[in-house]
Amino acid sequence: MSKFAPKKTATIKAPKAANKASLHSRNQHQGRYDFAALIAASSELAQFVAKNAYGDDSIDFADPQAVKALNRALLAHFYGITTWDTPEGYLCPPIPGRADYIHTLADLLASETGEIPRGDAVRGLDIGVGANAIYPMLGRASYGWHFVGSDIDPVAVKNAAQIFANNAVLAGGLDARLQSATRHIFNGIIGADEYFDFTLCNPPFHASAADAAAGSNRKLRNLGLANKADKTPKLNFAGQNNELWCEGGEVKFITQMILESKHFATQVGWFTTLVSKIDNLPPIYKALRGVGAHDVKTLDMAQGQKISRIVAWRFSISKN
After folding, report:
1. pLDDT tens digits for 240-288?
2. Which end of the chain is more exposed for a tag (fewer CB within 10 A), N or C?
3. What is the pTM of this model?
4. Which domain covers residue 20, as residue numbers?
5. CATH of the domain at 264
6. If 0-12 CB within 10 Å is exposed, 13-18 middle and 19+ buried, where does residue 163 land?
7. For the chain, give me the number of helices (H) and strands (E)?
């Protein structure tokens, strides 16, 4: 294996485009939403659909209930997941971008053999599974993978487990675990004899509650719905504090993940995480050099005008 150096980092890039067609080629959420088909899958959505200024069917994306109803319809129509909910105030994630992470991971796993591994024998660890359990749901429904999902919030752990228990297509696909040591990531979650083909993570990217509130205001302004007098805006995607921010922000969280990953080098095939800001890559690469990661990849994903990226690293090629 070659020693990691930033200028020689292997990079896998998804095609870049300025519209929704830039999603991964296997992502089912291409083009406009077919609201007639979605309503047929989940009739609850109908009450939120109306013509927008362009005469097209749409929903009010600033309405949390409308967004949740859309998610339920998408999960039912595309994945056969018919029972899904999150507690009040918990993150309600946009599904198309989350699906891209799963399909990009599938490509990463297939890079060794040329074939995407499928089925229960493929094990993934979702750090911060959340009450929505979005990544394990999509990975289970799309490829049959088995997941361990960890979270520091007992409400999130309980809800994630309940989602899998309530849907036949997800049955047996998730072991939801509470991380009681809140300053740790892999420690206390990965058992001594466990092996995971990959880990994934969508880390909290704000450094403080104030930063998270500012981010909420930016999103509302982008939707044209910002109220300058409202100091505590209600976002359509919601989110608990631990879902949105941590002290030190994304870089500190990922750096801790990298430091702990070295201790589980032989128990994980690929460690991966989303990185929201390109400016955060240099300190992340520095941390990876520090732990002696042998193979590092930066995989770009595009959704409309937004570009995000996954950083993946490993210490060995095989389990042995």
Report:
1. 455 444 566 899 999 999 999 999 999 999 999 999 999 999 999 999 9
2. C
3. 0.83
4. 6-32+93-314
5. 3.40.50.150
6. buried
7. 9, 10
